[in-house]
Design brief:
Layout (H helix, E strand, L loop, with lengths): L2 H23 L3 E2 L5 E2 L1 H12 L5 H8 L3 H13 L3 E5 L7 E5 L1 H25 L4 H45 L1
Antiparallel strand pairs: 1-2, 3-4
Helix pairs in contact: 2-5, 3-4
Length: 175
């Protein structure tokens, strides 16, 4: 089998995994508090909990989303009593994010789930050599960079389409 076909087969496995992750993202879960939390929300809590003295931009960078998207999610989590915004001590203009006690309970329960998932993966693949880990890391970074490029292309295309539609609406209204 040619390397090109092997890469295509590997990509098909990756797409199957992505489809399963997308399906999983729709299913809320119990993280030890009275309400269910979606995976996307718990990952925001994870980013806040893992990164003290963070702000919206930091969280957006960690999650790979726009600051606007991160801000919307953080506001929603704040209203649910899972995250709180705190003014900076050195710079009062800076707003930091912290987990509330309720958010911390969910964060810690999620950490246990991650540990269980890591252990299952390690159990299935066994130990990896440093070279194997480096190869895997390079593959994942390559996939991420391709998807970053693709997201930029799609966003630009959508922006151009919206501009064209706006221009057409203006022209139709002037006629």
């Amino acid at each position: 089998m040619k390397d090109d076909q092997k890469l295509r087969n590997l990509y098909q496995v990756w797409m199957r995994i992505m489809n399963k992750l997308n399906e999983s993202e729709k299913l809320p879960r119990n993280y030890g508090i009275e309400e269910l939390i979606t995976p996307s929300d718990i990952h925001v809590l994870q980013a806040v909990g893992d990164n003290p003295e963070n702000n919206v931009r930091t969280i957006a960078d960690i999650l790979g989303v726009t600051p606007g998207a991160a801000s919307q999610q953080l506001s929603k989590l704040s209203k649910r009593g899972l995250v709180t915004k705190v003014r900076g001590i050195k710079n009062e203009k800076e707003v930091y994010l912290m987990l509330t006690p309720k958010g911390d309970i969910a964060y810690r329960a999620h950490e246990k789930v991650h540990e269980m998932v890591y252990l299952r993966i390690i159990e299935r693949i066994g130990p990896l050599s440093p070279d194997e880990m480096n190869t895997l890391k390079n593959i994942l970074h390559a996939i991420e960079s391709v998807y970053d490029e693709r997201l930029d292309e799609v966003r630009k295309s959508l922006s151009m389409t919206r501009q064209e539609n706006s221009f057409q609406n203006i022209m139709e209204n002037e006629s």
